[in-house]
Amino acid sequence: MYPRTFVFITLMTLCHLQLAGQMLTSALPPSLRSSQAAKTPQSAPASELPDDPGQEAIPTATPEPLPATGIPVRAEAGNQKWAGDTVTWSGGVVIYYRDYVIRADKIVYHRSSTELEAQGHLQVTGGPSDAYITATHGDMRLNMHTARFYDVHGSLGMRRTGHSVVFSTANPFLFSGRVLLQTGEGSYRIVDGTMTNCRIPKPDWELISRLITVENDSASTKNTFFKLFGVPIFYLPYLRHPVEETGRQSGFLIPVVSNSTIRGFTVGEQVYLVLNRSMDMVLGTEYYSQRGWAPNGDFRYKGPGLDHATVRWNALFDRGVEQLQTTGPQAGQTVLVNQGGTDITALGRVDLTPATRAAANLEYLSSYVYKLVFNDNYQQAVNSQVHSTISLTHVHDGLVPSGYLERLQNFASSSEGDEVRILHLPTIRFDVVDEPLHTSPFYWRMGSSVSYLGRSEYSFHVRNLGRFDLYPHMSLSLVGGGWSLVPEIALRETFYTGSQIPDLTGVKGGTPTVAHNPLNRADLEASVDLRAPAIERDFVLGHRVLRHVIEPELMYNFVGGIGVKARNVPLFDPADIATNTNEVGYSLTQRLYTRSLSPAPCNDADQEAGTCPAAPREWASWQITQKYFLDPNFGGALVPGRRNVFDTTLDLTGIAFLTNPRNLSPLISRMRFEAVRNLRIEWDMDYDPRAGRWDADNVFAGYSRGRTTIGVGHALLNAVDENGSNASITQSQQVQPFLEIGRPNAAGFNLAANGGYDFVRGALQYAGIQTVYNWNCCGLSVGYRRFALGTVRDETQYLYGFTIANFGTVGDIRRSNTVFHDISVPPSY
Length: 829
Prior knowledge:
The chain is mainly β.
């Protein structure tokens, strides 16, 4: 071998890497290997190499999906196929993204861009506004919250629970359209669509528009047609409609159109203003064709906790009404009488600290005639008192310092100036609730106040009068063997910077004379309250046990030291009617309880104890109370032949009965009856054995069954009044029946009727009837009301209203004049 040949072979052997033989394993993909293995005969050697190594199968590269970034997408489907970063799901596809759920027959999803195309029975639910969208097909970009859907039906305010769909708001926003474009989370545009609050597919009403924009919790549209029961009614150039249940939008409210015999044809409009999340207000006016302009409005505020404020105002710039004068220099002539006025009410509260709060309940009324003639609520119209109070109270460890400003205005008649005004400007109080006296068994409490007072009425005016009142008490509770004995003593010191001189002869018609002499009133008080053990007995009536309980009580009360000074005290509030008294009283209360002997459903506490007793229920109660006055003259405070109201008589009953010295008070009876389920009867009576008459006889009864409530109220009054310097009797007897079937917002037919008849005058004072029929999301209401309040008000009203859910009511039926009972106020029975 030549040397050059040896060197060349050696270099090739050391430097070339492909000269050595290579052992091959199968390079086929797993799927291809398995398919080829199935085709290879069993006799073929396992190590057999391909005939042509250059033609062997090359492995197919399958990219792995990119790692998940951002918000993950979870999918459920019958079939899944990947191609790069694109996956195709088919067969009952369900995608979960954030709080959205997307369903379709087929979905193609691009993982890198979060875009998807959905085909067949597309459904999207969830989101912050509880969206529920169905479409034939569409595409979405999840991370941008954008989408495009075709042939859409949907809603905002619906939530899917299992296989059922429920409304998460009282008035969900439902829509349909040819195309729905989602421009962001909670922002949509509906092309060639409709919107409504009624349940589909046959809504009572709907709005049709070329373009509807939904954003910021409201839907706005232009050039819209309103359809009612499938018939276009009117055209709206612009409309803004809240989507969220709590959403509020500023704008004009539905106009008011009505008619009345004393107001004439009425037309009005209001504008609603949203000031911020916590405040809104309404400003508007009405025009009475026979009387003039009547502006009105209200303001509302709702703060944290119990903080709130509400202000309402109504006024009338009256042109006047012609009336025939019967008295005065213009007697027999027809004059123009102005019955206009202003009525403003305000109610509010604010908690300054957990123990300190300020509250206000204010009303300003310029004329009682205005309220009597134009107030739509019968009970408010005949209420002759206007009471305003502003108070500040702090409570800490049983100590209650407080202060308040108070104004009480009481109208005696509809005549101008015939009224009484009482002012507390201000009153500062410091009270102590019952507290133990150190370690002794005695308890003590105290009331004290400093007041700056004023009173004004016809021919009597007390101004700039100061009053200081100190009233400590001490009591002892003795209990044993079922007996209860509570003795109590008290001292009271009251100082007035002024006084009055009573008109005992009647020269001034019983009106006292103001005196500027100070007055000091002091008294010593003692009382004993004795309660015997309750007497009870059980009676078994079928499957029930009836228990009869008798609760006796005996009281003794003594007050001394005031004497005839009580006549010289100016009267502002109950603190000024204290007098001497020496009296004994009794009270006898009977109660009937019933309990079923059948087992009752167990609660958690009964299950632990192993027993399930039925709860007892009070069927009826009857309390009788009467006082015997050992001092019939009350220390000389009683003025014979006059109307006398003292502290001790006011504690017994609100009906005045004292005109002359007497020992025995009227018999007071209070009865409650609830033996029949859903039936409640209250019967209150005051019988005067000396006069031989009923001072008061009031019955309130009501029965409810299903959607129907029927009842009646009867009130008889024979109270002592005062005509000049002589006592007289005021008589009144009224009956007020009522009937309600359903509620004004209940589906189907609803009815309400009530009235008031005065037996003394022999006239119907008030009557009203209202019927309502509610469909899916709209309702029609008609009504009639009649007022006959003497010569001041003789009015007939015909009411109507058409209500559209989440829009308002077209007509003149409002909360103030509806015949239905206000559910926010307890029933009269």
